[in-house]
Amino acid sequence: ELGYDVIDLNMACPVKRLRGCARGGHLLHQPEKASEIIQEVSQAVGGRVPLTIKLRRGFDDEQDSEKNFFRIIEDTIDQGFFAAVVHGRTVRQKYEGPSRWNFLSQLTQRYPDFRIMGSGDIFTPESVFEMLARTGVDAVSVARGAIGNPWIFRQASLLLEGKAPRPPSLEEQGSVLRDHFELCSRFHTERKTQKLMRKFGIKFSIHHPEPGNAEKAFISCRSLSDWWDVFKRLYCDTEVAAGEIPSGDSP
Ligand SMILES: Cc1cc2nc3c(=O)[nH]c(=O)nc-3n(C[C@H](O)[C@H](O)[C@H](O)COP(=O)(O)O)c2cc1C
Q1: What is the pLDDT of residue 22?
Q2: What spacing in Å lies between the alpha carbon of 143 and ligand 1's midpoint?
Q3: What is the signed CA dihedral for 70, 6, 21, 27, rounded to 10 degrees?
Q4: pLDDT in tens, 124-141
Q5: Domains present along the chain, CATH in parentheses
Q6: Which of 58, 81, 144, 225 is 20 to 30 A off residue 251, Cα-Cα?
């Protein structure tokens, strides 16, 4: 009714505060509850839009966890889900240690007719193709690799066409960083915007022609006007970025 194209059930989020209310990845060790949700959502949606599920490879490394995972994924297959996106870490692992891509290979071999999308440790456009080749997944999900490098999708598309992935020009960097600022300030308070944009400025600095100086400059920002001063200095040799620089603390 609200016009969404897809409904995704999240049984992967490791955030602790979800534990008490049995949500996200914490459902992975409550397979009965997980199955109930899968069935009820499937019945309620009645095939009107595709359903997907996001899973981690288990709650932890205990044997029961693996059993629970397979029970849950088989429920989604039985309920006609469109695909499962699987992150090859356990909930307990959070982000420690590598994502186990071998587990993704096991899944694609075990369920050749069900769409499996892979997640975990995709930090470069090349790693998208490495995961496809090594695991046989149908698609790859990019997450932290896009933080500070939103061009990763374009770079992967270029690789797919057999072309070399092009780094972003200074003009593109300035333009995206500026849009990022505007979106951030639309949804967050000034204080939060300052904190987030300092962090993203630091992340974006790896693309700058002088990455070390750019990083230091963003690290030193203590206010929004500091941030804009740094932005102007680093990115405003170019017309797009120079456009209309807000004069005060906000755009
Ligand atoms: C800041 C942040 C927010 C995330 N939010 C979601 C989310 O809303 N839904 C989801 O399925 N996964 C979410 N994830 C998990 C990622 O989709 C992905 O499975 C995980 O980061 C592993 O991939 P990576 O190692 O390539 O980052 C989030 C991850 C991060 C870092």
Answers
A1: 74
A2: 5
A3: 0
A4: 999 999 999 999 999 999
A5: 7-160 (3.20.20.70), 170-242 (no CATH)
A6: 144
Q: Look up residue 34 and give its two tokens.
A: 């997980």
Mean pLDDT score across all residues of the chain: 92
Q: How far apart are CA 25 and CA 53, in angstroms?
A: 11
DSSP states of 194-207 as a string?
HHHHHHHHHHHGGG
Q: Is 14 in the pocket of ligand 1 (CB under 6 A)?
A: no
Q: Which residue has the higher pLDDT, 80 or 244?
A: 80
How confident is residue 248, by pLDDT bands cut at 50, 70 and 90?
very low
Ligand 1 pocket mutation, candidates 7, 15, 54, 99, criterion most atoms within 8 A of CB: 54
Give me 231's structure tokens: 């932005």
**H helices then E strands: how many in the chain?**
10, 5
**Whole-angstrom Cα distance, residue 65 to residue 235?**
49
Q: Which of 229, 242, 233 is nearest to 171 (CA)?
A: 242
- The interface predicted TM-score (ipTM) is 0.98
**CA gap 164, 174 in Å, rounded:** 22
pLDDT above 90 covers a percentage of the chain that reads 87
Q: Give the three-class secondary structure for 243.
A: coil
CB atoms within 10 A of CB 71: 13
Residue 144, ligand 1, Cβ within 6 A = yes
Give the per-residue pLDDT at 2: 85
- According to the model, what pLDDT value does residue 32 have? 95
Cα separation values, 111 from 18, 54, 133, 137, Å: 30, 16, 17, 11
